Amino acid sequence: MFRPISTLPLPASAQLLLRESGFLFCEDVISHRGVAPEARSILQRWNLHSGECWNTLTSPPQTLNSLDLWQEECTSRSIVTWSKDVDSILDGGIPFQVITELCGAPGSGKTQMSLQLCVDVQIPESLGGAEGQAVFIDTACNFSSQRIRAIADACCKHCHLLSRKNQIRDFVNFNADSILNNIHLISIHGIVQLLAAVKVLPQLIEQHPQIKLVVIDSLAFPFTCGETCNTLDRTSYIYRILSDLQKLAVHNRLAIVITNQLTTRIIKSTPNMSELSPALGESLGHRVTQRLLLGRIAGNLKAAIVLKGNNQCMSSAKFQITEAGIRDL
Amino acid sequence: MARSSKLVNSETVQHELDKAEIKGPDAILQLSDYGLLRVGSLGPVEINWLSNNAAASLLKPGFITALEFEKQEDNWRRVSTGCHVIDKVLGGGFPVRGITELSGESSCGKTQLCLQLCLSVQYPISQGGLDAGAVYICTEDSFPAKRLQQLFTTYPQQRMSPSHIKEDLPKFGDNIFIEHVADAAGMRQCVLGRLPKLLSHHSVKLIVVDSIAGVFRSCYENNEMKHRAEDMRTVGGQLHKMASQYKLCVICVNQVTASDGPQRSVPALGLAWSNLVTSRIQMHRSEPDGADSASQRSLEIIFAPDLQPTSVSYTISEAGVFGLAKLN
């Protein structure tokens, strides 16, 4: 089975030149003698003429067997939400290497949960945490330094207590200031800036390899606010954002959390009937690995329901939001 | 970045972009990497360099840490209500961020509180104001000018330095810009056209829309709900944009609608609107228990990114809306 040239990520004019010179398949270009001289002269313009470059273009990804993956999954820890009940329906917390969507009506605790996770990802390894850094992409002006400091203070207090109890040393550098210093924040307005922020993420992660969590709060806001954007474009932008994030997640072992709004969907078959469903269409539900619906029961009392997940079917838990952050009842 | 920029001839890249009529970083980012490959003879290295540069140029100042963010003074600045009891519940006053919704039954004091803020915002920053004017967009009744005139004389006397206010007294009225809007089309024209012009000429730090339900609740038929949601997003999005661009406080007054849930009344306009709201504050008024007691009023925070849901009771006097300190 030969691989056609047109499947390669090559510029349109390079494709045309190669086709005109009679190169239709990858196997025409490269043989055991290296890259064919004619193709070489064409590809020189894009610095792709060496056999090495060509191989990276065409080589399939490395294969892994499911035993390796299973072992990796068993050893990797999740980010705790600081509520045991919520953690248990998520099989331990927010997992790494996948995209988790938090959806819910306004006031259901999406932002609070996101802020909590930004702090929790930094829990030191000696206490079972990931000791990572976090990125917070704020699209709706929701990031509050006051809240994050309160949550960080409470987390530090708890961790210091634990470390004293278990006599763990080298704990000096873990304080609220260091937690805030390890959260990389960007405030963006509009769809294009969101695309740009996702684009520069790999560079940021290269500079700060400790980053273990990326939060977008909220993914829906730029799309449902202001600029009108047709559904086709919207789906393509969202898929691009999510596939870029997914690549990063797998490659750098990150956890990705996106928040989403709920929207009222009108059911056409029965007049005057409507139901609530997550915004941004059905397509988003296919793309995310895990979907957690948050809801407000009364005041600070909230509920979480797993709508989609690999490990468990529909299950729910209650939690509350206190001054110190997400807590069990 | 530095390594790849050596490999890229920026002139040829620019030439290719001109040929394909791709102008500016926005257009570059809207195309995917595969879309850019299809443009012409841009190679993967050049595309990577191009889109990274485009992204960086759109993201000034880029990523900052939360610690740096905390130190920026103008984030989460607040407009004091002039009453320290209400201010305490609100964390210092109405936030300069996103859209704050103030909902409640009719005659519970929404407009009173907004008028009070129109004065309060004109105070210097040291006294809880923002040292700037206000815009008041009326959609329901005509602007309560008489009440405002009354507040000019009664309200400021509660504040700290009367001598300072005495000489400034006539200026209060000059810094409140009033607009009457009757329908959704007028609202769009106002926030998309006239308001940005006004903001570029005058120092304004408070926009009050009294009320948002006035335009969006009445002008639509039942089968036009999708249309209504789109219009609300346009107006809400523009208000958000102005709030962050000019660092001003946006307050949208909303009506309430009866509900069969645990609460008797919920803010009107449904999810399409509440998804646009950053902080939601509701005012309640309950009927008096007996003939001799006055009606109970309370102000409740339903949700806000930085506040706990709490409530405080208040009264309305000649001097404005004032909270009642809890007795226990």
From TrEMBL, chain A:
It comes from the Eukaryota. Pfam families: Rad51. InterPro entries: DNA_recomb/repair_RecA-like (IPR016467), HR_Repair_Mediator (IPR052093), P-loop_NTPase (IPR027417), Rad51_C (IPR013632), RecA_ATP-bd (IPR020588). The gene is LOC113213342. CDD domains: Rad51C. Residues 75-262 form the RecA family profile domain. PANTHER family: DNA REPAIR PROTEIN RAD51 HOMOLOG 3 (PTHR46239:SF1), DNA REPAIR PROTEIN RAD51 HOMOLOG 3 RAD51C (PTHR46239). It comes from Frankliniella occidentalis (Western flower thrips). The keyword Nucleotide-binding applies. GO terms for biological process: meiotic DNA recombinase assembly; reciprocal meiotic recombination. This is DNA repair protein RAD51 homolog 3. Keywords: ATP-binding, DNA damage, DNA repair, Nucleotide-binding, Nucleus. GO terms for cellular component: Rad51B-Rad51C-Rad51D-XRCC2 complex; Rad51C-XRCC3 complex; replication fork. The lineage of its organism: Eukaryota, Metazoa, Ecdysozoa, Arthropoda, Hexapoda. SUPFAM superfamilies: P-loop containing nucleoside triphosphate hydrolases. It is found in: Nucleus. The keyword Nucleus applies.
TrEMBL record, chain B:
It is found in: Nucleus. Residues 75-256 form the RecA family profile domain. Its main location: nucleus. InterPro entries: DNA_recomb/repair_RecA-like, P-loop_NTPase, Rad51_C, RecA_ATP-bd, XRCC3-like_C. One of its GO terms (molecular function) is ATP-dependent DNA damage sensor activity. GO terms for biological process: double-strand break repair via synthesis-dependent strand annealing; resolution of mitotic recombination intermediates; t-circle formation; telomere maintenance via recombination. SUPFAM superfamilies: P-loop containing nucleoside triphosphate hydrolases. Pfam families: Rad51. GO terms for cellular component: Rad51C-XRCC3 complex; replication fork. Keywords: ATP-binding, DNA damage, DNA repair, Nucleotide-binding, Nucleus. PANTHER family: DNA REPAIR PROTEIN XRCC3. This is DNA repair protein XRCC3 isoform X1. It comes from Frankliniella occidentalis. The gene is LOC113212354.
